[in-house]
Amino acid sequence: MSKSSLIKTLIVSILLFTTSCKGQTPPGFEKNIDDGEQNSEYVYKSGSINGIGKWYQGREIAHVMGFQGMEWLERPEREKEENVSLLIKNMNIQPKDDIADIGAGSGYHVFKMAPLAKEGTVYAIDIQPEMLQAIETKRKALDLKNIELIQGAEKTTNLPANSVDKILMVDVYHEFSFPVEMLASMKEALRNNGQIYMIEYRLEDSNIPIKTIHKMSEEQTVKEFEANGFVLQENISNLPWQHCMVFVHAPE
């Protein structure tokens, strides 16, 4: 065999070996994934620099905002920008409500809900221990007994089954690495007449100064929730920048 032919054979062998090692992982996806994911509903391809290269129902999933952004969550202008007081009114919180704040962050909403659900429990759930520690520090300082901290995970809220009347998610769903699994976990935790309050920056409004990948449209959100056993009860359109979409269990 000539030197030129030998080189060509080696190149072809290397390419075949590389392809076989990648299995079914599409080109452009450089993260390690397990065999279970490769045959899932998720699609892996290159996308935004602010995304994780993983797509669900045509939407690229965004990177999680780290605990280093905690100060932004507590910014003084947040009430004016988001009218959080009005969001809390939208939730119609009753004294005995059990509520889960999924992706609670520093607890900005937790501490507004806890005094209203004074005979119930507010579960503060986050995947980052640093966020939970910040909530615990403030909880102790305020001596609030009805806040319970839960360490979440990528695929589960870690809430008990049939344990909550309301679930709040503020600007967090679009960052879930496993939205299908998380919605299944929420469905199990939510009581029969329970509601999910899904708060996301409106993709339909280009004037909202937030990166596109950190926004969601009503159409896309409904598409994803319906695929996982929920229906849109109402989209309360009274917030300055965000959707306030209320989802409930789909009829059997």
UniProtKB/TrEMBL annotation:
CDD domains: AdoMet_MTases. It comes from the Bacteria. GO terms for molecular function: methyltransferase activity. GO terms for biological process: methylation. InterPro entries: Methyltranfer_dom (IPR025714), SAM-binding_MTase (IPR053173), SAM-dependent_MTases_sf (IPR029063). Pfam families: Methyltransf_31. Coiled coil: none annotated. Keywords: Methyltransferase, Signal, Transferase. Residues 1-23 form the signal peptide. Residues 98-223 form the Methyltransferase domain. This is SAM-dependent methyltransferase. It comes from Nonlabens spongiae. The lineage of its organism: Bacteria, Pseudomonadati, Bacteroidota, Flavobacteriia, Flavobacteriales.
